[in-house]
Design goal:
Layout: H1 9-23, H2 35-48, E1 56-62, H3 73-88, E2 97-101, H4 105-108, H5 115-119, E3 130-133, H6 139-152, E4 158-166, H7 172-179, H8 189-193, H9 211-224, H10 231-245, H11 259-264, E5 267-269, E6 272-273, E7 282-290, H12 292-298, E8 303-312, H13 323-335, E9 344-346, H14 352-361, H15 370-375, E10 386-387, H16 392-395, H17 400-416, E11 429-439, E12 442-452
Parallel strand pairs: 2-3, 2-4, 9-10, 9-11
Antiparallel strand pairs: 1-7, 1-8, 4-7, 5-6, 8-12, 11-12
Helix pairs in contact: 1-2, 2-6, 6-17, 10-14
């Protein structure tokens, strides 16, 4: 059964009509389609996986990540957009569709409804179709996938995905409470049944950490139950990623760490210590996507988007696959590439154990062998499958709406050979994994993207 077989027949009939008009195949074919037709084609392509040709990345950029008292979402987004357009060698008026990702601006600044229009007001991008995207920590990768689908459906020749987040706040508890809304608040029993103690109420000023770390801690305790993994392994992940971040001038934290420093840092939610958890921070990233024909027309240096998949979480029964594995397998199939082919991977290490769990869920190793892979040193610079050369969320930083796009910007630079001292030699295939929110015992959203030279 194909993806299109699972969609309602009336819906599919409408989408096929829209698609055919865009291709000039049916009555009413239009070389200048309305925005409604544009997004009908995007939805068709995104839902079914049918596409005209692989899209390309021709521009990518991130701001520095950190706590920037004087910054705004607008100033951060403007910098990322300007740098990404310059990298692509195109002007704002050439962009035909815009996708803007943000997670918590509504809760922290009050700006709702038109977050992208507000953030991008001075960039020259307004006037074109602009879609605001919110999908928890996977917002950035979701915006990217929509931009790629827009190009691959034939709706547009060139699009941009932008993600920006101003997550720091004078009242840190407000930042933690905002992050905590990426769970199903209508079913709090999900967490009690799973043995997850969320600590103080989400809106409590007593909170000293994100409630997500309570969830990660519970998942970590289950992961440790096999006896094959220990807190020392989590500390080693944090040390590795900090070593990588030391070579990234845009990373939030670059100072060297020792394993003992990680183990001795404040306990957040056992067994997670502070230095095993990603930080609160601000930042933005942007990626310009276009068709192969557009690349030829302007002579751009490009990276090919070989495959991408976004899935939502499910109420997993024993034996059912986690969201990340489902997304990864679908992307590998589309790309005709497996995890063994990737030289460089950026994955969602919001907590150090999450990196090890992702090793197994992405198929980088067999179930139960994450610790063995870590100990082999194959995931650090110089290894066969370098993981998080940017420093990962643990050290590069995790401004929610920007994270997925920052991963893709790093991988684009790696495949172009532009990463300086942290460059992975002969990088030809890259994988990005970005997850967001929690729905019971599964991420609420999971994205996996495969890129290649």
């Amino acid at each position: 059964m194909t993806a299109s077989d699972k969609l309602p027949q009336k819906f599919m009939a409408k989408m096929l009509a829209v698609r055919d008009r865009g291709r000039g195949l049916g009555a009413g074919a239009d070389q200048n389609p309305s925005s409604g037709e544009v997004f009908g084609r995007i939805l068709y392509s995104f839902s079914t996986g049918e596409k005209m040709a692989n899209a390309r990345i021709i521009g990518a950029a991130t701001t520095s990540f950190g706590r920037f008292t004087d910054s705004t979402i607008r100033s951060l987004a403007e910098q990322a957009v300007s740098d990404a357009l310059a990298d692509a060698g195109v002007s704002p008026d050439e962009i035909e569709s815009v996708f803007f990702a943000n997670g918590v601006a509504g809760l922290l600044t009050g700006q709702e409804m038109i977050r992208g229009q507000s953030a991008l007001r001075n960039t020259g991008l307004l006037g074109q179709p602009l879609v605001n995207v919110e999908n928890a920590c996977a917002s950035g990768s979701t915006a990217f996938q929509l931009a790629a689908a827009a190009v691959e459906s034939g709706s547009v020749d060139i699009a941009i995905a932008v993600g920006a987040e101003k997550l720091s706040h004078p009242e840190k508890a407000r930042s933690f409470a905002a992050i905590g809304t990426a769970m199903d608040l209508l079913q709090p029993d999900d967490f009690r049944r799973a043995g997850i103690e969320l600590g103080p109420d989400l809106d409590s000023g007593d909170r000293r950490s994100s409630p997500f770390m309570d969830v990660y801690a519970a998942n970590t305790r289950r992961f440790m139950s096999s006896g094959r993994i220990s807190a020392t392994d989590f500390a080693n992940v944090a040390v590795k990623n900090r070593e990588h971040a030391a070579l990234n001038p845009k990373a939030q934290f670059r100072e060297p760490l020792t394993r003992q420093q990680v183990l001795d840092s404040r306990m957040v939610s056992a067994p997670l210590t502070l230095l095993m958890c990603s930080p609160i921070g601000d930042g933005a990233a942007a990626v310009v996507v276009c068709s192969a024909e557009y690349v030829k027309r302007i002579g751009a240096d490009s990276v090919t988007i070989r495959g991408y998949t976004l899935v939502s979480g499910i109420d997993r029964a024993d034996g059912s696959l986690p969201a990340v594995t489902r997304a990864a397998r679908a992307s590998y199939e589309k790309a005709g590439i497996g995890p063994e082919d990737a030289q460089v991977i950026e994955l969602h290490d919001a907590a150090a154990p999450a990196e090890l769990i992702a090793y197994e869920e992405l198929g980088l190793c067999e179930i139960g062998d994450a610790g063995k892979l870590l100990h082999s040193n194959q995931t650090r610079l110089g290894g066969k499958h370098v993981v998080n050369p940017s420093g990962g969320l643990l050290s590069k930083g995790h401004p929610i709406g920007a994270t997925g796009l920052a991963q893709l910007a790093e991988l684009t630079d790696q495949l172009r050979g532009r990463c300086g001292d942290r460059q992975v030699p002969n990088a030809r295939v890259a994988i990005a994994e970005n997850a967001g929110g929690f729905l019971g015992n599964d991420p609420a959203a999971a994205s996996v993207v495969v890129l290649a030279t």
